[in-house]
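User: Here's a structure from my thesis project, written as structure tokens. My advisor, Dr. K., wants to see whether a designed sequence matches the one we expressed. Can you design one independently, without my sequence as a hint?
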């Protein structure tokens, strides 16, 4: 929108024409003339500025005053070494407008996006200075002057202007790779230094970042060997692609490489315009030639092949990373499924290149002068990467980080460069670092600037409730019994509850959530860091917080006995537990009790008062009369809360909500972080109680913000599952003559209830687990991005849903809190809230980080599973377990081992084509033979006879190690017997929960009653066995408390 120029402004402005040579969509050169107006008052964005040239808004970050110098890179350095400038330690960078244009037009779109993101990141304290609009910093290009010379002259002129504009308060360092530029400008102005990038880094950063030299050397070597303009040769022109996408001749989607058959199979998922998944959406990309240099995660353009060239995906189980080609180069994948839509990649719309963890081959020979060597990526889906380095011998047993730079048309492998080393292969810190990098999770320490924004809470200066806040909030400290129920060891308590009976006989239910938004204001460094992380990452032995500890474990954590700010949702429920009234608002609370799940459940089950007191610190050191009364009130509140949750859940289940199964394993570590044991998580009713209350709050908050912001509310959508994903579930159900209906969530939920075997409780859990595997992923979205009929949450059977209850560990909840408070206060000015477009971009980022966090947690659990079995003899009793068959393939079966929650393949046919036969004495015999597979059975025919295996049969397997040099090590399952595993420990698995609880209670009471009167052997010959099997492990070594996933449903809703 234009505005009128006042006379004084007209005098200050200088008008000139800028001539640009651009290409149109047909590839023709065009001469474009643009008018450029220059003036004196262009913002310099420096905190040291003495003149009045800064913009009147707070969104533009300032160059800091506390750095030793400002850095001004030239165009070449910004284009080719942007990765170095992105390092978090390098701050105070001035990118000129000339440089930004060079990155955009001489680089590529992805590089330009990275530059814009760098400048937007306030932690980098870097800016773009519009030197071409500043009257005294602009350089007119001379007749006959080449582009590089003009760019260098413009960069130095702007650097010199900056130094004089700031009155010489701070030195300016211009970095370039042109020696002639240094010779020409290096001695012109004192304190305006002109250095090469290497000289600059050696002078300022070598002692602080010793590995930075290796990074620059590696990038330089990669640049020297890169074939100019070969990156996209062979792909179709952009105008052809654009036209083909409009007509539907070409299809666009993200490439997903099959991890188990990476060299042959990849898939592209098509999307409809309204973002609903196309039912017939997967396109098979078969072979590396059809993949055409695309890498896993790239946004690609696909051309469908004629039907006569369509192929099917392989039905053979193979170890990850194994090549399926025979010596003749043909695919030897064996049995395939029915043919599916097949295509080839004709263009790359957007590269997904990132940092990759890799390893040198054990037999890799070092070339002369750091010649080219191949790095094997940690991820099977990524091709080998060719790099130049002189450190092969020194880093042969290390995991290293590399980046891809290009992939030439003539090259079998992409070119890349070395970034840094993570450490020796097999060391715990190295493997954890690899997991974080492979999931694109960056977790650096919180900066001093971020910490300065936050309040202080020390003995000398304790934090206190502000009087003004007390007046703005509803005070619940004297009127409500507020308590929390969390896992043992939980520090970031972000939800508390209250329940009481009102004078009219109705029930009041309150969900009180930490008011993180009081401390984290929009646009602050803490807010930006939280947005970048988006979620707290929980690994098996540690966690990486989204927010600094002063907030997550202190001022925002709703621990007992202290005053805390909260955002509350309080309902009045009638006798049928239907909401009569609901109130949203800011409150101040003081939680009375911090309960653990096990104690809350035990209180509901009738735990004696003296046992309750021993496990609830807040009840200790009180007068005897108070203890009895307070325990009674607390027990009543817990039981009432569970009763309310039962009715809320029953109503959702009647509406079609699914009760799904996900395998969660408790990892118990010793003080030295060695794995002591792996045990399945015990499911308690109180887990469902808390989850149901959180679901109830999330649903009602979603209704409120969707009503207030119909086009820009942040909600969570769980789409309909794709029908073909139910194939395995339906096949297993038919093997047991179960009827499973997938027409709707209600039909699925009701039919899963009938999939029950009184003699085998594992079956129902497995069927629910298979249903979980068929589900689509839930995702955040903006209400302006989807039609109203797509807002629903399939698994929870709710029309609207969001995330509100965990703002300490999820950034989405922080956004929702801000929207809820704006909706409640009915403010008309919503400029501080994200628009629909901003919310779409934010949702995409949060979804990505959420998936990355889940994948990292899974990888961490698999790492510690491997460490648990690593030090054990394969003949150890704990390594032989019962397993249930849930899928049949051409050369084996997939099984679930319930004891450890491990799923994996069991091979019935090896790589040499031999099949296995189990002798009566338990010995395995491998010989020539064949395998015949039907829908429900797989038969192995060998020279020793025929053995058959059926879906949902129990077999015995042994857990062994699957060691890998270049990739993540794990465990594999090997067949031991075709019959169920019968042992003392597995026999106990057939006991019901009531029987287990009765045994535990009986043994515990006997021990308490006879304590001091009888020695331990008087408890019975089976006591130690029972204690080992059912006794509670030491809470000090129980790392399960790090996981809060039981607050989620199995759908990760």
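Assistant: Designed independently from the structure alone:
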């Amino acid at each position: 929108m234009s505005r009128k120029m006042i006379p004084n402004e007209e005098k200050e402005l200088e008008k000139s024409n800028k001539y640009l040579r651009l290409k149109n969509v047909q590839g023709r050169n065009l001469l474009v003339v643009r008018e450029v107006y220059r003036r004196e008052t262009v913002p310099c964005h420096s905190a040291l500025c003495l003149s009045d040239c800064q913009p009147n808004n707070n969104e533009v970050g300032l160059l800091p005053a506390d750095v030793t110098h400002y850095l001004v890179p030239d165009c070449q350095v910004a284009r080719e070494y942007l990765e170095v400038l992105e390092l978090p330690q390098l701050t105070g960078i001035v990118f000129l407008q000339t440089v930004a244009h060079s990155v955009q037009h001489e680089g590529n779109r992805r590089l330009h996006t990275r530059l814009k993101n760098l400048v937007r990141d306030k932690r980098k304290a870097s800016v773009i200075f519009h030197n071409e609009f500043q009257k005294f910093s602009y350089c007119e290009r001379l007749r006959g002057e080449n582009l590089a010379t003009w760019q260098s002259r413009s960069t130095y002129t702007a650097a010199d202007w900056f130094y004089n504009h700031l009155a010489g308060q701070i030195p300016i360092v211009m970095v370039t790779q042109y020696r002639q530029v240094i010779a020409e400008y290096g001695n012109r102005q004192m304190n305006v230094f002109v250095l090469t990038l290497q000289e600059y880094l050696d002078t300022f950063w070598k002692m602080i970042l010793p590995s930075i030299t290796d990074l620059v050397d590696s990038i330089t070597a990669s640049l020297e060997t890169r074939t100019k303009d070969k990156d996209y040769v062979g792909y179709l022109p952009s105008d052809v692609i654009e036209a083909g996408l409009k007509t539907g001749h070409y299809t666009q989607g993200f490439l997903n490489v099959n991890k188990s058959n990476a060299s042959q199979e990849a898939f592209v998922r098509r999307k409809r315009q309204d973002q609903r998944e196309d039912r017939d959406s997967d396109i098979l990309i078969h072979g590396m030639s059809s993949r055409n240099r695309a890498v896993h995660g790239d946004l690609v353009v696909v051309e469908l092949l004629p039907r006569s060239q369509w192929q099917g995906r392989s039905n053979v189980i193979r170890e990850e990373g194994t090549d399926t080609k025979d010596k003749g180069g043909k695919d030897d994948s064996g049995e395939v499924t029915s043919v599916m839509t097949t295509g080839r990649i004709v263009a790359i719309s957007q590269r997904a290149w990132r940092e990759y963890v890799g390893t040198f081959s054990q037999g890799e020979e070092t070339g002369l002068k750091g010649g080219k060597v191949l790095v094997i990526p940690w991820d099977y889906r990524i091709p080998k990467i060719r790099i130049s380095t002189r450190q092969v011998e020194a880093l042969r047993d290390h995991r290293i980080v590399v980046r891809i730079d290009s992939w030439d048309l003539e090259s079998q492998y992409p070119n890349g460069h070395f970034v840094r080393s993570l450490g020796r292969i097999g060391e715990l810190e190295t493997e954890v670092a690899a997991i974080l990098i492979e999931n694109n999770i960056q977790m650096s320490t919180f900066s001093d600037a971020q910490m300065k924004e936050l309040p202080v809470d020390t003995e000398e200066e304790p934090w206190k409730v502000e009087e003004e806040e007390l007046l703005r909030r509803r005070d619940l400290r004297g009127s409500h019994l507020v308590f929390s129920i969390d896992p043992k060891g939980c520090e970031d308590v972000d939800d508390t509850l209250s329940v009481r009976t009102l004078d009219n006989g109705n029930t009041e239910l309150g969900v009180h959530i930490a008011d993180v938004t009081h401390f984290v204001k929009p646009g602050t460094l803490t807010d930006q860091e939280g947005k970048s992380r988006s979620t707290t990452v929980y690994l098996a032995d540690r966690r990486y917080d989204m927010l600094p500890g002063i907030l997550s474990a202190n001022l925002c954590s709703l621990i007992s006995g202290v005053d805390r700010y909260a955002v509350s949702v309080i309902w009045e429920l009638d006798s049928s537990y239907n909401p009569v009234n609901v109130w949203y608002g800011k409150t101040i609370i003081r939680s009375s009790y911090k309960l653990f799940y096990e104690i809350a459940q035990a209180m509901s089950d009738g735990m004696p008062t003296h046992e309750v007191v021993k496990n609830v610190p807040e009840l200790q050191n009180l007068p005897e009369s108070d203890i009895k009364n307070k325990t009674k009130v607390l027990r009543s509140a817990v039981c009432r809360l569970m009763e309310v949750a039962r009715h809320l859940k029953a109503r959702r289940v009647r509406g079609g909500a699914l009760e799904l199964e996900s395998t969660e394993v408790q990892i118990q570590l010793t003080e030295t972080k060695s794995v002591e044991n792996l045990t399945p998580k015990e499911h308690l009713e109180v887990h469902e109680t808390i989850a149901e209350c959180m679901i109830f709050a999330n649903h009602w908050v979603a209704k409120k913000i969707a009503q207030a912001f119909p086009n820009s509310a942040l909600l969570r959508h769980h789409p309909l599952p794709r029908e073909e994903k139910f194939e395995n579930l339906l096949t297993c159900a038919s093997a047991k003559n179960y009827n499973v209906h997938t027409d709707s969530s209600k039909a699925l939920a009701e039919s899963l209830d009938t999939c029950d075997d009184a003699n085998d409780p594992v079956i129902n859990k497995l069927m629910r687990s298979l249903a979980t595997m068929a589900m689509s992923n839930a995702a955040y979205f903006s209400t302006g991005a989807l039609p109203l009929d797509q807002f629903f949450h399939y698994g929870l059977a709710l029309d609207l849903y969001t995330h509100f209850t965990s703002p300490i560990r999820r950034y989405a909840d922080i956004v929702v809190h801000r929207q809820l408070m704006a909706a409640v206060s009915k403010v008309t000015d919503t400029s501080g809230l994200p628009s629909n477009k901003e919310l779409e971009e934010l949702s995409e980022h949060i979804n990505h980080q959420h998936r990355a966090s889940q994948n990292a947690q899974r990888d961490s659990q698999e790492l510690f599973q491997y460490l648990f079995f690593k030090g054990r003899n394969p003949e150890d009793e704990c390594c032989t377990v019962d397993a249930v068959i849930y899928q049949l393939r051409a050369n084996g079966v997939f099984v679930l081992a319930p004891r450890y929650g491990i799923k994996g393949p069991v091979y019935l046919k090896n790589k040499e084509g031999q099949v296995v036969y189990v002798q009566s004495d338990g010995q395995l015999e491998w010989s020539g033979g064949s395998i015949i597979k039907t829908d429900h059975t797989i038969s192995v025919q060998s020279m020793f006879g025929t053995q058959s295996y059926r879906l949902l049969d129990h077999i015995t397997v042994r857990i062994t190690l699957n060691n890998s040099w270049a990739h993540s090590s794990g465990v594999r399952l090997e067949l031991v017997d075709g019959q169920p595993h019968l042992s003392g420990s597995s026999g106990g698995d057939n006991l019901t929960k009531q029987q287990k609880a009765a045994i535990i209670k009986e043994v515990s009471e006997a021990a308490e009653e006879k304590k001091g009167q009888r020695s331990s052997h008087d408890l019975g010959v089976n006591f130690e066995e029972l204690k080992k099997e059912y006794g509670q492990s030491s809470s000090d070594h129980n790392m399960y408390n790090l996981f809060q996933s039981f607050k989620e449903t199995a759908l990760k809703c």
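When you compare it with your expressed construct, this may help: The mean pLDDT is 84.
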